[in-house]
Amino acid sequence: MRRARDGYQYQPIPRAATDDVFEHENERMAEELSGKITTLKHMSIEIGNEVRLQDKILRGIDDDVDRSSGFLGKTMGRVLKLGKGNHNYYIFYLFLFSIFVFFLLYIVLKFR
């Protein structure tokens, strides 16, 4: 009440200039945010495309592994079947063949 006695009259600070500054700043920040959102949208689309591509590649690899494991399983079955048979001479023939190959290599390398 002291101000009223001294003849002080309240005069508000003009807000028009500062409101414009805040409005321009808000518009600038909204444009920056819009640009960042657009960038994030494009990045997320690219990430999605990359994930789909990688998934396709992994599925192909999985199919290849399944085929090779089936082939390996059949081969191991044949080897085990061969080992269970009464064909005891296969090991002997393999041993003679390996000795022949080593002897042939020895002669070729010695007289070279």
Describe it.
It is a single chain. The protein is mainly α and 112 residues long. The chain has helices at residues 2-6, 16-84, 89-110. The termini are far apart. The mean pLDDT is 84.
Please tell me the overall pLDDT. Answer: 84
Task: Find the structural class using helix and strand composition.
Answer: mainly alpha
Q: What is the β-strand count?
A: 0
Radius of gyration based on Cα positions: 43 Å
The H-and-E topology, N to C, reads as HHH
Shape: rod-shaped
Largest sheet: none
- Approximately how much beta-strand content do the residues carry? under 5%
- Give the % helix: over 70%
Straight-line N-to-C gap: 122 Å
Oligomer: single chain
Number of helical elements: 3
Note poorly predicted spans: none
At a glance:
The protein contains three helices and no strands. The chain has 112 residues and is mostly helical. The longest helix has 69 residues.
List keywords for this structure.
single chain, mainly alpha, 86% helix
What is the element layout, followed by pairings?
Blueprint: H1 2-6, H2 16-84, H3 89-110
